[in-house]
Amino acid sequence: MITKEIPVINELISESLKKSISYAEYRALVSQLVEENSTTGSDKSEAMVNYTMLNDRRMRRWDKAVKVSDESKTKVENFDKKVTWLVITESWCGDAAHIMPVINKVAEINGHIDYRIVLRDENDNLMNQFLTNGGKAIPKLIMIDTDTNDVLDTFGPRPSVATEMVKTYKAEHGILTPEFKEDLQRWYNKDKGQSTIEDLVNLLY
After folding, report:
1. Do 87 and 141 touch, CB atoms closer than 8 A?
2. Whole-prediction pTM
3. pLDDT of residue 154 exceeding 90
């Protein structure tokens, strides 16, 4: 008997949602890890611990700084389906630190959007269903029909503008250099989450 793929994914999502945490719980977890000089994920190296520390500061800043325009706010407010935004992430991920506070700001606008978080290394089977170009790139947002657990769409690991930047650079240079990664961080700081907000609004419609 061949198991259909969709029921398998739905089952994985159900199991992952049982283990999921809210954004507030995730922020508390990351802050606690910083105090303990630790990190999420299977790699507990000093580099990953340092990334988690840096990302805690980034998220704290974005939690205060992200602004949603009136136009985007109205569109999110008018969305009338019940969806779950299940995000796969890890505390050391630089892109996630810029994106997850933005997701939270958008989700807070509409009570129909339930924002839940799971860790990648603890949910390998789920991650393997949502690879990006064959890789376990995070953060990955899975938009799910809350009533049926059916997958409606996905977003990530970066906003579409940043995805194009990465694609173009990789095509020219083969790899992402440290210099490019610094440029990408500067882009996130300049963009102030607006590209992510635009992508999330498009996700809803």
Report:
1. yes
2. 0.94
3. yes
